[in-house]
Amino acid sequence: LLYEALLLPSVLKKAFSKNDCQKLTEYLYNLASATHRFYNNHKIIDTANEDSYLKVSLKIQLQVLSYPVFS
Prior knowledge:
Elements lengths: L1 H5 L1 H10 L3 H21 L8 H17 L5
């Protein structure tokens, strides 16, 4: 999941340089699918790993929102 989120800068560069917006929609679909799989496979709230899972979630959010396109 974190790996998928970290791909954003390279996906955006490729999509804009090649005028291929489909790459961006594919990336977003894959990121949403990875997020969905993660939440289906891991109970987060009220578990011993809650802090770790929430930190991963925060890192993903920060990666996506800190990219210059969204600033």
